[in-house]
Structure formats: C-alpha cells, structure tokens
Amino acid sequence: MIMESSPPVPGRGPSPGADDGRSPLWYTGGMQKAVLIAVVVIAVAIIGWALWPAGSTPPPDVSPVEAVPTPDLEAPEPLDPTPVDAPEAVAEPPPAVEPEVALPPLAESDPFVRERLEPMSLPEPWLEQGDYVRRLAVVAENATRGTYPRRQLEFLAPEGPFKVVERGEALYVDPVSYDRYDRYVEVLEGIDPGELAGLIETIEPLLAAALGELGVEAPADQVFDTALAEVMAVPVLSGDVELVQPNVMYHYADPDLEALSPLQKQVLRMGPDNVRRLQDHLREVAGALELAP
Questions:
Q1: Cα–chain center distance at 212
Q2: Where are the domains of the chain?
Q3: Enclosing H/E stretch for 46
Q4: Which of 97, 101, 188, 242 has a Cα-to-Cα distance from 123 of 20 to 30 A?
C-alpha cells in the first residue's frame, strides 16, 4: 500500500535543521536514536534549571528512557508503468442505405401508387378514383390558396343534407350535421402517419411533376407546408354556431368565421370534435414529414 505524507500545516515553516524539507523524524537507524536521546537530555536539563532554584537540593538523577527505534518500512514496489491495453473499439456498421425506388412516368403511376395505398385499408370508392398523384397535386395547390377542389373531392361528399335548428328567430347548426363526417376522420386516423409520410416522400418527384403541370414552381414540401398551415388555422369552436340565411345559402353570423377561406369553412362544417381529431392527425403526419404543423 502506498502511504501519502500529511500535507504541511498552513503558516508553519519547515522543521529546524531540515535541509531537504523533511522533519528529522524521517531520519532512520542510529541517527534517529541519537537525536531522540539528546532531545530528552536537553529537555530534562532545562526543566531542572527552571524549577529548582539555586541552593536547593538537586533532584535525583533521572536516566532517560532509551527510545525504541522504529523499524524501517520497506519501500513499496514500484507500479508497473506499462499501460493496460484498452479493449479495441468495435467499429459500428454503416447505416443501411435503402435502395432508390424506380418511379414510373407520371402518366403511368396509378398502379405503382395504388399498390402502396392498398395496405392502408382505404375504402374502395377512394381507391377507384385513379389519377392519384395529379388529384393530390390539385388538392394541395388549391389548399395553398384556400379554395376547395369540389370536383377532385366530390367522392368525399357526406351523405345526408346539412341541417339547422331554429330557436326563435335565430338559426344554428344542428350538431347532427357533424356526424356525417365521422367516418372520414376515422379512416384518416386509421392510416399510420409514418406510412403516409413515407409514401409522400417516395412519390415526391411525381408530385413535383404534377405540380409543374399546374404551373407551380415551388418545391412539393413547401406546397404541402402551406396547405397544412391553411387547415391548421381552422378554429375549434365550442357551443352553438349561429347562422344567417340572406338567400338560399347559409352564412356564419360571426363575421370572423364568415371571413375564413372556402377550404377553412368546409373543414369547419365537420364540427369541433372532428376538426380537433383531423388537426391532431395532421400534426403527426407533419412530424413524420418534418414539416411545421
């Protein structure tokens, strides 16, 4: 065991007679014994001179007790300075690189896209539409401008009429009308966000080509980011929603709601619960696409 010397006491200098910074008690063998005897003799002489005045009987001789020499300690064996070999670092394998998918031409892309849509359990009427990439491009481009592409999305028209309730002279949205959109939201919630994001990323070159046909020069991810922001800006209402009917069509009595874009008002008609669920799902998709929801 390696012994460490005690640290020096602050404010105290080296011991007298020490010329190498060590206390004389570190001397070994006969020298240490002689020093201890001399110290005892001198101490006794000084005490006798101080305590016994002149003319008094001197105290009996006191023979100093011979100090027992401290046996020398064997020096510890020096440590082997040879460093211990550290275990060799295991090189991590490089990340697997997924092979690039060979995309078909835009005009021939329906079989390619449908093959990847079928595992998402979409209703058959949705899959029967065809022209998937161009349809998606039109919807995204229209959404950036706040318009609702009815022709491209007419297969999503809800069943049953839009209903209102009258209370005195005021008109309100009948909450029953919101139920018409429940099944659409349920279908969207059943699609894995990562799987949907992966499909969009795969067909992004096809989307860019379809957007180019519409005269859109912005990158596809920027188009989707803008379209997503339009939907996420739809407010989630609470309580009754009042309407007015200046003509055949209904309008929102609240001017702020009526000032929303056509797309936002269409989303608003889904009802507050469906709007919240739709926006939550789109947040997950945006996170998978690394877009800002």
A1: 36
A2: 23-67, 106-289
A3: helix 29-51
A4: 101
